[in-house]
Structures are given as structure tokens and as C-alpha cells.
Design goal:
The strands form 7 sheets. A 4-stranded antiparallel β-sheet has the order 3-4-5-6, with no helix packed on it. The longest helix has 5 residues, at 268-272. It is globular and about 60 Å long. It has a single domain, classed as Quinoprotein alcohol dehydrogenase-like superfamily (Methanol Dehydrogenase, Chain A, 8 Propeller), CATH 2.140.10.10. It is mostly beta strands. The chain starts with a strand and ends with a strand. The chain is built from 3 helices and 22 strands.
Length: 306
């Protein structure tokens, strides 16, 4: 739940920031840290930008650890009303938890309903991308909420050790479970957002040609305009994409490649043949419809740019 800055010389911590104190929802912050040198409020700063499982996008000074921005990068996020940004406050930097969605406050064996995001977070392992040309970050997201019922469990070697039953479903107001967004990290705002039927579990690739690439769980490789989000091209690969789109030069031509093959947390039901809706912490039930759109199998698809 914590970002540590450490000295490479002796390993000592320089600063520490905890995103989700006393985590109650499985929002462990495994997501990547993107380091940029950018203007912030008229001053060039060495920044760290982080899109956390908890649904908040953070912009920090990576030298000092100063928290500059902490805003929701999915409007459905409801477990917190926001982060206290008052430096004179005793709660500076802490998120204000909404009691209705607090699994601890509601207690054991109580089903807390409609928590957003779900345990897989507004973004999990799928990496975002930054374009130094547009100054924007391109973020694959999950637009998913959950019901969460904690219960006491005893440890048994070799057996699953999960003290909760979950159900996952699309966030209110629609039936889509993902968005691919452009994010302004200086102001903490969504610039544009493209809805996707399922979570966008593929990594993003931003190019100097102002084209951004990403993949979908149905198996589409998509290319969109970096400034507007307008879809420019899509290609259906044989299986769902959770891999990261990559680019390289060969024979003087630029290539775009992506590995398809459904899997990951969102695709665990299809990949492992699971049918219990509560399996995968509720992901099997939440993504049950995925089998109508794609199938198993791994393939590397490579394109040559014109």
C-alpha cells in the first residue's frame, strides 16, 4: 500500500507515502511508477505519477515525496470522498473513507454492497504510458464494482487463504467494465475516455506519431488519436489481449507487435475453465460473458507501419 523512495547507495528510505492506510478492500498498490520531468504549476518538477488500485491517480515530487495531486481517475470510485490535501491538517495525504463502503466498519459476515472499485482495482498490473509530446498519460482501466463479505478463515497449508466472498459487476450507469483514458496529471483530470465492454487489461503504448495503441479482452488491437481518443484502426486477434503492445525497428520500418492470449485475473474463468461465480474473488461471475467474444490460445501478431 506504500510508495518508498530509497537511496541506491545504502538502501535507506528517503520518503514514504501510503495510499490506502489499513486497506480493507485488497487495493494493494502494485502498479508501476512513471517518472517524468514536467512543468507543474509553472515550475519544472521531477515527478512520479502513479495510478493506484484504489482508483486514485497520484502526482508526487519524486525528490521530496510532496503530494501534488490525488484525484479519482474513474468517476465511479466511491469508497473515499477524496484525499485531504491541506498540509496543515493532521490527516494530510489520507483518504476519507465512506462508512457505507468500509468493510471493517460494517463488520465480519456483513455483505458491503456496491463498493467501487472492485478488488482488482481501477487499474491492476496493466501499465499506463506517457507521451512527452502531449504531456498526457494513457491509462487502461477497470470500471468494475463489487459486493464484499469478509469472514473468519483459518490457515490450512496448501489451501486457498481468502477471508472474503466477492461478487463483481459493471459500475453503475452502464454495462461496460472498462475505459481507456487520457489523464492530465498536473490537474488530476480525465481529458478523454473511451468505454470498453470489458476491462482494458493490456498495457498502453504511446508513440511520437501521436498514435496510442492498446488491446482489449475481446482480442482487438486498437489505435487511437493521442489528442482526441478517436479510434483510427482496430484488428481482431485470435484471443483476448492482456499483453503489452510493443514497437521496434526492423529493416528500416517501424513494427507494432502484441501478444494475445486470454488470462490474468479478469480472464481467469475462461483460461482455467472455472464456473463458480465467486471464484477468482468474484471475477469468474463478473466476466462470465467474455467467453462469447474470444477463446483461448496464444499468438504474436506483428504489423509493419506504412
Amino acid at each position: 500500500m506504500t510508495i518508498f523512495a530509497r537511496s541506491p547507495d545504502d538502501g535507506m528510505a528517503k520518503w514514504v507515502y501510503q495510499m490506502t492506510p489499513h486497506d480493507e478492500w485488497d487495493f494493494d498498490g502494485i502498479n508501476e511508477m512513471i517518472l517524468t520531468d514536467q512543468m507543474h504549476k509553472g515550475e519544472m518538477r521531477k515527478l512520479l505519477v502513479h495510478f493506484d488500485r484504489n482508483g486514485l491517480g497520484y502526482t508526487m515530487d519524486r525528490d521530496t515525496g510532496e503530494l501534488l495531486v490525488a484525484e479519482k481517475f474513474d468517476p465511479a470510485v466511491n469508497w473515499t470522498t477524496g484525499v485531504d490535501m491541506d498540509k496543515n491538517s493532521a490527516n494530510y495525504g489520507r483518504p476519507a473513507v465512506v462508512a457505507k463502503y468500509s468493510t471493517e466498519q460494517n463488520g465480519e459476515d456483513v455483505n458491503s454492497k456496491g463498493i467501487c472499485p472492485a478488488a482488482l482495482g481501477s487499474k491492476d498490473q496493466q501499465p499506463a504510458a506517457w507521451s512527452p509530446k502531449t504531456g498526457l498519460f494513457y491509462v487502461p482501466t477497470n470500471h468494475v464494482c463489487m459486493d464484499y463479505e469478509p469472514f473468519k478463515v483459518s490457515y490450512t497449508a496448501g489451501q486457498p487463504y481468502v477471508g472474503a466472498t466477492l461478487a463483481m459487476f459493471p459500475a453503475p450507469g452502464g454495462n461496460h467494465m472498462g475505459n481507456f483514458i487520457a489523464w492530465d496529471a498536473e490537474n488530476g483530470k480525465i481529458v478523454w475516455s473511451n468505454p470498453e465492454l470489458f476491462s482494458v487489461w493490456s498495457g498502453a503504448l504511446a508513440t511520437a506519431g501521436d498514435v496510442v495503441f492498446y488491446g482489449t479482452l475481446e482480442g482487438y488491437l486498437k489505435a487511437v488519436d493521442a489528442n482526441t481518443g478517436q479510434e483510427l484502426y482496430k484488428f481482431k486477434t485470435p484471443s483476448g489481449i492482456i499483453g503489452n503492445v510493443m514497437t521496434y525497428m526492423h529493416g528500416g520500418r517501424q513494427q507494432i507487435a502484441v501478444l494475445s492470449g486470454i488470462g490474468g485475473w479478469a480472464g481467469i474463468g475462461l483460461a482455467a475453465g472455472l464456473t463458480d461465480p465467486s471464484a477468482g474473488l468474484g471475477a469468474v461471475g463478473g466476466y462470465a460473458g467474455l467467453k462469447k467474444y474470444t477463446s483461448l490460445g496464444g499468438q504474436l501478431t506483428v504489423f509493419t507501419l506504412p
